């Protein structure tokens, strides 16, 4: 397949169609929230994460999240020599002793935060707060498209991908994409059978 405007060619028709849009300026993909238009569906999906708050790429050092893999890669460079505190058990590195000690509670089993309703214990305050919503039924995170409500921002973000069609999790073996990390991990296990 050959571009009608220049010498570009590809054996894949969709590649040529995408390329032709660089000449025509055509932007057939429209954001349903703000109506901004894009020449490629992948660009629309990345943009849509700005509305959903979906941040599928997580820094292993500081847990900061990003909507694009390239932003995570750039951020990772800022961490060189910043993490001198090493977990004695799993060797994960941390910027402060306090963060390392908080992390070590995972290994020690220490759970200082207790639910006043059912006495279940948690190693992080946020985990307790999220758990309490299972008792109260509180759902403070509404979907802006269908008004369905969720008890956690993470659950809202996963739900929102149903509206956007975003598939941020890619199988490292076959490149198949999924809207949830757990779905991708379950799929990945089929490669190991």
Automatic annotation (TrEMBL):
GO molecular function: DNA binding; zinc ion binding
GO terms classed as biological process: regulation of gene expression
GO cellular component: a single term: nucleus
Phylogenetic lineage: Eukaryota, Metazoa, Ecdysozoa, Arthropoda, Chelicerata
Alphabetical list of PROSITE patterns matching this protein: ZINC_FINGER_C2H2_1 (PS00028), ZINC_FINGER_C2H2_2 (PS50157)
Protein name, UniProt field: C2H2-type domain-containing protein
Keywords: DNA-binding, Metal-binding, Nucleus, Repeat, Zinc, Zinc-finger
Domain C2H2-type: from-to ranges: 1-28, 29-56, 57-84, 85-112, 113-140, 141-168, 169-193
Localization (cell): Nucleus
Domain of life of the source: Eukaryota
Family to which this protein belongs: Belongs to the krueppel C2H2-type zinc-finger protein family.
């Amino acid at each position: 397949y050959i571009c009608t405007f220049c010498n570009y060619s590809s054996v894949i028709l969709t590649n040529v169609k995408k390329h032709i849009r660089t000449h025509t300026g055509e932007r057939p993909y429209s954001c349903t929230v703000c109506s901004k238009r894009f020449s490629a569906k992948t660009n629309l999906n990345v943009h849509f994460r700005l509305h959903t708050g979906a941040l599928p790429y997580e820094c292993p050092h500081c847990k900061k999240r990003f909507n694009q893999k390239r932003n995570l890669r750039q951020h990772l460079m800022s961490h060189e020599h910043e993490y001198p505190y090493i977990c004695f058990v799993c060797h994960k590195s941390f910027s402060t002793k306090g963060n390392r000690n908080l992390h070590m509670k995972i290994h020690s089993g220490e759970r200082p935060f207790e639910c006043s309703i059912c006495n279940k214990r948690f190693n992080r305050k946020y985990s307790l707060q999220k758990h309490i919503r299972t008792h109260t039924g509180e759902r403070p995170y509404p979907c802006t498209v269908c008004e369905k409500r969720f008890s956690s921002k993470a659950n809202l973000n996963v739900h929102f991908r149903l509206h956007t069609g975003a598939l941020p999790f890619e199988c490292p073996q076959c490149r198949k994409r999924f809207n949830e990390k757990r779905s991708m991990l379950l799929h990945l296990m089929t490669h190991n059978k």
